[in-house]
Amino acid sequence: MEIKTYLDEQRQRVEKHLADLMLEPVGAFSRHIESMRYSLFVGGKRIRPILCLAAATAVDDDEKTYQRAMPVACSLECIHTYSLIHDDLPAMDDDDLRRGKPTNHTVFGEAAAILAGDGLLTFAFDLLSSQVSAGINDSVRIRIIQTIARAAGSLGMVGGQSLDMLFAGEQVGYEELRSIHRSKTGALITASVLSGALVARADEAQEEALQAYGDHIGLAFQIVDDLLDVEATTEQLGKPAGSDIKSDKVTYPSLFGMETSRTMAREAVQEALAALVLFDRKADPLRALANYIVERKK
Ligand code: GRG
Q: Cβ distance 24 to 263 under 8 Å?
């Protein structure tokens, strides 16, 4: 499958639905909603929603299942975008470029950016509770909400970010690094895959396999992110390159060197592909996404 065509097409479908579902900037809250929309529509690869849709398709390739997964996919992008807005704040990474454009707080101010993040996070759960309904029973819906809430929360992304802050400037070892990344980056990626599988009513073996797939690509994604921070340009990334070195962060390249890190990312992708062995051709988009994650240039 041609991954570029697939990604472009999926990104467009996600963005169309995001545009349909997102609040309109009218009325008393228009400036606040504008600030949410700014970061949501400014760009981004949309990897998490696409993983959710591809996982649903791997289990059941009926278009109805894909459509049912779409609001879940959109909610994941809202949560991810909130995390980027907050990550860029002066109290966190203090960055002024994201997705190739000025960061939310440099455009709207710090207080408005905090609220834009809060608004997107909350809106994601509004979508999950109000838009994920047709063809999905309440117990499955609750499991989807729980899976995403846990991945985004204190034992997932928020917890990982707090560890990242706690260890800033310290010479952490591999175990700590792995644990930061598993929660900060990996948890939401795995939840994206699992929530898509839940929409499609995956059985236990499929769920287990997709959990393993998500864990391995989450690791590969993070290693590649570290490699790109060293190798790519600010223009390519749409965010400041070299920021890990500047902030003296322990990363895969700083612990293992570039070549070993690249090998580790490729091995993680091989393990992700191996986890898909029980799936047929319907999982080809997931296979292509795993390869894309390790070969990506931004
Ligand atoms: C503030 C609660 C809170 C969490 C922040 C996401 C995050 C946690 C921090 C971002 C720092 C970072 C560079 C993490 C590495 C992996 C990552 C999440 C990269 C950005 O995701 P992409 O590449 O971005 O999918 P786009 O813009 O394409 O959506």
A: no
Instruction: Enter the tokens of residue 102.
Output: 């000025």
Q: CA torsion angle for 265, 268, 274, 275 (degrees, to 10)?
A: -140
CA of 134 to the centre of ligand 1 (A): 31
Sign of the alpha-carbon dihedral angle for 274, 52, 182, 35: positive
Give the C-alpha separation, 106 to 252, whole Å: 30
Question: Which of 14, 46, 84 for a ligand 1 pocket mutation test, highest count of atoms within 8 Å of Cβ?
Answer: 84
Number of domains in the chain: 1
Can you tell me the mean pLDDT for 245-258? 88
More confident residue, 131 or 54: 54
Q: What whole-number distance in Å separates Cα of residue 196 and Cα of residue 2?
A: 22
Of 81, 64, 59, nearest in space to 286 by CA:
59
Ligand 1 site residues (CB inside 6 A) read 44-45, 47, 80, 83-84, 86-87, 99, 157-158, 161, 184-185, 222, 225
Q: Indicate whether 280 pLDDT > 90.
A: yes
Q: What is the DSSP letter of 172?
A: -
Question: For 172-190, what is each residue's pLDDT tens digit?
Answer: 899 999 999 999 999 999 9
Distances (CA, A) of 120 to 45, 67, 84, 99, 113: 18, 21, 11, 17, 11
Residue-wise pLDDT for 53-97, tens only, equals 999 999 999 999 999 999 999 999 999 999 999 999 999 999 999
Residue 97 in 3-state DSSP? Answer: strand
* Euclidean distance between CA atoms 142 and 28, whole angstroms: 32
- Give the sign of the dihedral formed by CA 121, CA 89, CA 250, CA 172: negative
Please give the pLDDT value at position 170. Answer: 84
CATH number of the domain enclosing 246: 1.10.600.10
- Residue 214 token pair: 């998500």
Range of the domain at 33: 3-295
